[in-house]
Amino acid sequence: MPVANLLAGKTAIITGGTTGIGRAITLAFLAQGCSVAVNHLGLEKDQPHLDSLVSEAEQLKSTNASAGSLAHLQGDVTDPSTGPALVSFALKSFNTDRLDICVSNAGICTFAEFLDLDSALFAKTVRTNLDGAFYVVQAAARQMARHNSPPGGSIIGISSISALVGGAGQTHYTPTKAGVLSLMQSTACALGKYNIRCNALLPGTIKTQLNEEDLNDDEKRKYMEGRIPLGRTGEPKDMGGPAVFLACDELSGYVTGAQLLVDGGLFVNLQ
């Protein structure tokens, strides 16, 4: 993405920001001058992802003096205290009293047959994808409405094309993504009076760690590519530009309660 400093001087929090879509949005924000505090689970297996993100952020800063700064904090979004802690951490890390952007991205997706789906997987998916989004968005909104001067900000919920269509192996997942979309619509109504914009990004088939195994299967990948008008599955970096658009007041200042599909045209070609 070209460097245009569209988010110069802004401060953002992003949950699940060390891998996949969250990582791509983090890097896009940094390139546009935004300082970003990312949340992660702090698992040993994820340490290489965190290390490489820190390294990439430092490299970006070395080649672009106007790039934003990166900070990171361990925490589980299913814990209601994680959202407020991340907000406070971001403000302290970047020596500011203003939170401008919140991206609620953390999520899980484990494919499972409906008849065999156990209650533990269902509960974990709902707690992470929907409860976690609610807690983080509420914490960000409280800062933006009550402590930002003047009030205002942009909140982006990472939903999914799965909010609009069914999936046989995703009966526990698709309702949570529909919930994130609905959360953005309702918070847009609740928070407009504080000049807080709330929008949803709906990625289509984006190759991340969640579906990498499926897309490494040549037959499955070719089937998916055949359904997508642009002829390819998405990459995490495809989400960066749309997120910057929704975060930037100059570009999307009159956009709230909206849903933006980033799917290569898949939805309109479903048959």
UniProtKB/TrEMBL annotation:
Asked whether the UniProt record includes Oxidoreductase among its keywords, one would answer yes
Q: Where are the transmembrane segments?
A: none
**SUPFAM superfamilies assigned:** NAD(P)-binding Rossmann-fold domains
> Which Pfam families does its entry note?
adh_short_C2
GO MF entries: oxidoreductase activity, acting on the CH-OH group of donors, NAD or NADP as acceptor; quinone binding
Domain of life of the native organism: Eukaryota
* Entries under InterPro entries matching the protein: NAD(P)-bd_dom_sf, SDR_fam
Arranged from A to Z, the UniProt key words for this protein are: NADP, Oxidoreductase, Rhamnose metabolism
Do the record's keywords include NADP?
A: yes
Which family is it part of? Answer: Belongs to the short-chain dehydrogenases/reductases (SDR) family.
What's this protein's name?
L-rhamnose-1-dehydrogenase
Organism lineage reads as:
Eukaryota, Fungi, Dikarya, Ascomycota, Pezizomycotina
